[in-house]
Specification:
The chain has eleven helices and 21 strands. Helix content is about 30%, strand content about 25%. The longest helix has 19 residues, at about 340-355. It has about 375 residues and is α+β, with helices and mostly antiparallel strands. The radius of gyration is 22 Å and the shape is globular. The protein folds into two domains: about 10-195 and about 295-365, FAD/NAD(P)-binding domain, CATH 3.50.50; about 200-295, no CATH class. Bound molecules: flavin-adenine dinucleotide. Flavin-adenine dinucleotide (FAD) binds next to helix 1, helix 2, helix 7 and helix 10.
Amino acid sequence: MRRALKHTPVRLAIVGGGAAGMFAAAVAAERKIQCVVIERKARLGSKVLMTANGRCNFAKDISAEQFLADIGPAAQFVAQSVRECPPRKIIAGFKSLGVPLKRMADARMFPADGKAATIVHAFGDLLRESGVPLLTNCPVTGIQPQKTGFIVATKNFTLWAENVLLATGGVSYPKLGSVGDGQRFAAELGHSLVPYRPGLIGLETSDARVTRRTGQRFEDSCARVVAPDGTALYEYVGEIDCETFGLSGAAIYNCQRFIEHCLRERPALEACDITVEASFDRECVRLKGPRPRPLKEAIVTIGGVALDEVNPATMESRKVPGLFFAGEILDIDGPTGGYNLTLAFATARRAVESVASGSCSGVARLASHVRPAQGDL
Ligand SMILES: Cc1cc2nc3c(=O)[nH]c(=O)nc-3n(C[C@H](O)[C@H](O)[C@H](O)COP(=O)(O)OP(=O)(O)OC[C@H]3O[C@@H](n4cnc5c(N)ncnc54)[C@H](O)[C@@H]3O)c2cc1C
């Protein structure tokens, strides 16, 4: 005799198995929330494997308040997420998973063996041991809200989910899986997208003082953003690297990110009026109207799902109940130093905690509907 099977939705479909998606799944497992991770690449965490030249600077050993003070425009939106899941809690979490860690003099945290794979494996082991279903090599192609929950479509099958967490990342390094699908789904569901800009990227110059030093790295060098009237708007001391295209390294990256945010907040300011002064090896190279490298090479995407349409207390869409966001898909970004992975982890945790506590409106919406008839197979 055939046994009657019930069609039941998964409580949470996590779309994207990168930093935010893996962390979300780990939190869901801990909170006993039935979930599934759906990842378009053949393995989880492709971008995480590339972080910090394969070493993975996953956090900075600083307080939540210092973290929020450092990140700039997104601070208000992520404040609750970060206070509940501060960098030191993330560090303690990896320690509790048995990952040996290394703290640099500037408080940046890495796995002790210097291998990003150690972090990805820690997630993989945890999720496998917890029995979380992992669907890899499986791009999600669409999200359709239903009266109760969502239909999550992939190329080969569809899945019914009560809640969906979009954790599909930004749009840089598209070969690593982050191609902007999640932003497209969000836009199809009525969300506004803040235009993309590269964040944390090198600046082009053909200055001979740079090109003749190609391949050389200079620690403790100063890069400064200077306004048209000569005022120094921002300064960062860190590494400056000479590349074939121009300058890179943490000091340059952070200046470039500062300029992008500055241009966004002060529309009267033009990029061509800004100067970056890079001081290294007893030279001071001035880049007037600095030209960033292309977005596809950026460490982080500035722009994405607009924050005023997402509830910062739950990470739930204000437009589509039961739809959540975490990580770089959102218009959030931080400087170099582990801030972006911490942002992905903390927002992912907030989203899953909202599903767990039932504080989100998607749960209320589900409860208010009679479940669809559950037929026999
Ligand atoms: C070269 C490089 C170095 C970096 N170094 C650091 C560092 O040292 N420290 C730091 O804090 N940050 C670093 N970052 C930034 C950091 O990696 C990202 O901010 C972070 O990974 C964002 O996490 P996420 O989960 O939002 O996105 P991702 O980690 O990009 O994950 C998104 C996932 O979603 C999947 N996906 C996309 N579309 C679909 C779909 N349709 N269906 C299913 N799955 C889909 C993708 O394949 C991907 O696996 C670095 C970034 C780069 C590119």
